Amino acid sequence: MAESVALIDYGAGNLHSVENALRTVGARVRVTAEPDAVRAADRVVLPGVGSFAACAGGLRAIPGLVDALEERVRAGGVPFLGVCVGMQLLADRGLEHGTTAGLGWIAGEVRAIEQTDPAIKVPHMGWNDVAPTAHAGPAIEAGEAYFLHSYHFAADDPQAIAAMTDHGGGIVAAVARDNLLGVQFHPEKSQAYGLALLTRFLEWRP
């Protein structure tokens, strides 16, 4: 039987598209915000669309959900995938609409993309290269993915950076540490590349 994937529903994700993509690659998905369902899951996926502050607030507004994530992911060690703002929430803090605390699972902060060149548009929207680093691990491979964001994850530890992309300068495309994986791009919108990444996530044994 396929492993169970808890897809966290906290009012801030592109849920249906992510769910459909996971099911396409064979995942047994449960869309949930129930702490007990999170504790029972074999893998956890945290999506996220919108502002860091709104997503962090939505996550914390559900009683017991953050505690369940801490228990299952941090203490239990199950594989975790954060998508877009779901990846950004791994940081210590976000600087969008003031300073908002993140989960603090990977040290760093989420800052606005600096528009250093008028030709570089913000938000960063559309297809761009994903260039794995030496710390990518088996889940991240080179290719092109679909991005849509105005803020980026500035990771404190270079070894936590799994991939980079270029948009008027280097931007973190993915982070990884232990059983944690986060991608700034949208696998569910990245066609064959995104489905291949989700397949590798389901096969990943950190």
Short description:
It comes from Pelagerythrobacter marinus. With 206 residues, the chain is α/β, with parallel strands linked by helices.
The order of strands across the largest sheet is 2-1-3-4-13-12-11-8-9
Q: How would you characterize the largest beta sheet? A: 9 strands, mixed
Estimate percent helicity.
25-40%
Q: In CATH terms, what is the fold-level topology? A: Rossmann fold
Count the DSSP helices.
Answer: 6
The quaternary state of the protein chains shown equals single chain
Overall body shape: globular
CATH architecture: 3-Layer(aba) Sandwich
Low-confidence stretches: none
Distance between the termini: 20 Å
Decide which structural class fits the backbone: alpha/beta
- Can you identify the CATH superfamily? Class I glutamine amidotransferase (GATase) domain
Broad CATH class: Alpha Beta
Listing every helix as H and every strand as E from the N terminus to the C terminus, the arrangement reads EHEHEHHEHEEEEEEEEEH
- Find the count of extended strands (DSSP E, 2+ residues): 13
Strand content: 25-35%
Taking all residues together, what is the mean pLDDT? 95
Compute the CA-based radius of gyration.
16 Å
Overall number of domains: 1
